[in-house]
Amino acid sequence: MSVLSVGAQSYQLSDYLEKLPGTTFRRLYQQPSTAFAIFRRMLPHLAKTFVMALLYMPGPMLLSELDIWVRPDSKLHRDRALSILRSLHIVQITPPSKDKPQEMSLTTNFKNSLRMALEGGGNHNSFGVPSSLPVDPAIDIAFLDRYARKKWDDILHFVVDSVAENRSTAASSGPKASVKDLLLAGRLVERRSLKGPVAITQAGFAFLLQEANAQVWTLLLLWLEAASAPGSQLEVVDMLSFLFMLASLELGRAYDTDALTEPRRNMLPSLVDFGLIYIPRDTPRQYFPTRLATTLTSTASALRSVGAGFDAASSATAEADVAGLGEPADEKGSIIVETNYRLYAYTNSPLQIAVLSLFTQLQIRFAGMVTGRLTRDSIRGAIDHGITADQIIAYLAAHAHEQMARAAAVAGRPVLPPTVVDQIRLWQLENERMAATRGYLFKDFDSEEEYAALSGYADEVGVLVWKSDARKMFFASKVEQLRDFMKSRKKIEG
Amino acid sequence: MPRAIRGVLVECEPSIKSIIINIDRKNHDYIIEDLDETHLVIQENMIANLKMHIEDVLKDSYQKVKHIDDSDEDMI
């Protein structure tokens, strides 16, 4: 249930995969598309080189020979690559022993599947079966991009809208109830009261700041996690390989739903809700992967910066390009922050305005621009929602207008006015002016010796929080061990 | 025989501590023990209530500052 305990950090595919047992990997790697997708997306270049070298080796290779391939000063990279390969169960290394040197080889399923993916052949259908039915010419790449963007924006809006003042944007149909439940289960948003509106959490804000590709994976992993709960019909391994298969499909092409297995067909409605695939109403036997699906395993969009990724997710007018879903042609920021806490944002995007309204007191909206002010109340409101000062500062810095960046570079100053940055931090600190620790105050000791023994023991077991030798008092966070200690002391004395 | 009293140890700046002591003065229902300049032990069930009170006091003092430095209207 690691998803439920997710903190400020959002959930990542690699963390998820590393927790899977070896048997799961063996089954995953039966699909050539999965082996290929893992190879493409999850491995650093050096690890890929190792895999390619091992792929057509007839037998295992001596581990010591690897030292000849890698320069001594790159030992760190080598070890990292090997540890990734082992954690993903791609490479197996024999345990060290006296009479036999260590050998490494690819795991059987991975080797066979990757070979098949590269060479073609087999009738595994793991790269999808194109539909033979006629395709509606209206469904082109631009249409699919618009569709996926609309779906994804709805989801992001749902996360943001929870606190946005402007409810008119919510009029556009929000995401399906199932998606909302996932976001709630993943603690990206939470319901403060039983029937009340949902509110964004710290994890939700971190989610917004991720690039679109990571966002999609976060949601998909929540979906997987929900499916692995007892009583669920769906099977996680099959879901994962289906996702990897979708990632290998071609954008703008129609695929045949009849070629899918029954459980996979049952996953289609959820994937439609996420905007990963599109199913035309009049030809339900066809499905189209959208850019959200086909870029799942491409590193091109995964390597985008957080800021650019957010622009991509938030810019409503942007045209789609190859790198990712609707990444804007120019990646410049739009926010100007002045030393008097005034904020100007050159944007039309309702989503970006909604994000700003999380921590800004917006005042006037013009065509293409909003103005507002960072106030104590607006920042405190955001902090009450679990958004940290650092997240706000990072957001402002990542989206600072190029004019600000230029002026700062000329003067050799930081991009954001230091007074504003400090004040945002101070506003947060205000809330934390009191550090509270639950526990027990120990006082009224009979003797100096008794005090010294017990407080010393409390310190030893790590429960001592505060003490004053002069007043013979101390504060401990836990009482059980101390009680036992006192009892045993009694016995010895008595 | 030493006593163990359940409570919440609060660590804060002296200025905040003086606010807490002021709040406690009315009914003496918050503070269990005044430890030193920056430490107090507070009744466990009163912590949320106390935070709210401190918030109110701070808000009042900040409101005054805000009116002085807010010169929005004549800038537009």
From TrEMBL, chain A:
Top-level lineage group: Eukaryota
Cross-referenced Gene3D superfamilies: 3.30.70.2610
Function: Component of the general transcription and DNA repair factor IIH (TFIIH) core complex, which is involved in general and transcription-coupled nucleotide excision repair (NER) of damaged DNA and, when complexed to TFIIK, in RNA transcription by RNA polymerase II. In NER, TFIIH acts by opening DNA around the lesion to allow the excision of the damaged oligonucleotide and its replacement by a new DNA fragment. In transcription, TFIIH has an essential role in transcription initiation.
PANTHER family referenced in this protein's UniProt entry, alphabetically: GENERAL TRANSCRIPTION FACTOR IIH SUBUNIT 4, TFIIH, POLYPEPTIDE 4
Signal peptide interval: none
S-adenosyl-L-methionine among keywords: no
Protein family membership: Belongs to the TFB2 family.
Ranges where the Transcription factor Tfb2 C-terminal domain occurs: 422-487
Entry protein name: RNA polymerase II transcription factor B subunit 2
InterPro entries linked: Tfb2_C (IPR040662), TFIIH_p52/Tfb2 (IPR004598)
One Pfam family in the UniProt entry: Tfb2_C
Compartment(s) where it occurs, according to its Swiss-Prot or TrEMBL record: Nucleus
Entry's Gene Ontology molecular function annotations: ATPase activator activity; double-stranded DNA binding
Gene Ontology BP term (one): nucleotide-excision repair
Keyword Nucleus: yes
Entry-linked NCBIfam families: tfb2
Automatic annotation (TrEMBL), chain B:
InterPro entries for the chain: TFB5-like_sf, TFIIH_TTDA/Tfb5
Keyword tRNA-binding: no
Subcellular location: Nucleus
Keyword Glycosyltransferase in annotation: no
Keywords of the record: DNA damage, DNA repair, Nucleus, Transcription, Transcription regulation
GO cellular component, one term: transcription factor TFIIH holo complex
Function: In NER, TFIIH acts by opening DNA around the lesion to allow the excision of the damaged oligonucleotide and its replacement by a new DNA fragment. In transcription, TFIIH has an essential role in transcription initiation. When the pre-initiation complex (PIC) has been established, TFIIH is required for promoter opening and promoter escape.
Family note: Belongs to the TFB5 family.
Name the UniProt record assigns to this protein: General transcription and DNA repair factor IIH subunit TFB5
